[in-house]
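The material for today's practical consists of a large collection of protein records. There is nothing in a record beyond a sequence line and a structure line. Backbone structure tokens are a discrete shorthand for how the chain folds in space. Nothing more is needed to start thinking about how sequence determines fold. As an example, a complete record with its sequence and its structure tokens follows.
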Amino acid sequence: MSLSRLIARIFMVPIGLFLAILAASIFLGFAINAMYPDPAVYGDPAAENIFAIFSGFVLAFPIGHFAFYPAIMGLIVAEIFSWRSLWVYLAYGLVLSLFITHAPGEPIDGLAIGLDVRAMASGLIGGFVYWLIAGRGAGVVRRSLDNRPKSL
């Protein structure tokens, strides 16, 4: 096991998680902004896009707060078992986003279903971004330990 691979994993996992949460939040900001009944609220599409991006940055803090510990638990499991498949990270992002945004006693109406669907889509975006940055190389420490030379 090389020290450089271990250091790279130590930096790539938190950076990948941060960027995944940020990408999911920005996507959710655009999705929530698109739910407004009148598409031209401000009369300026550039202002609406800036508002959606800003609301995505603001949403990153509560989403990151609630998603941090469950995400770390899943990422540790993925590192231990060397799960590198895109489908694993997409499924985990989907389940994690639904876990964060859906309240158990939430009334089932059109608005709640619309928010849940948009949140699940943002979870897919977050899972894809994490896989793109850090998930493809999951389990590098375990692979390095398995490939060590046998003693005589």
Remarks:
- The CA atoms of residues 99 and 106 lie 13 Å apart.
- The first helix runs from residue 3 to 34.
- The mean pLDDT is 81.
- Residues 3-146 form one domain.
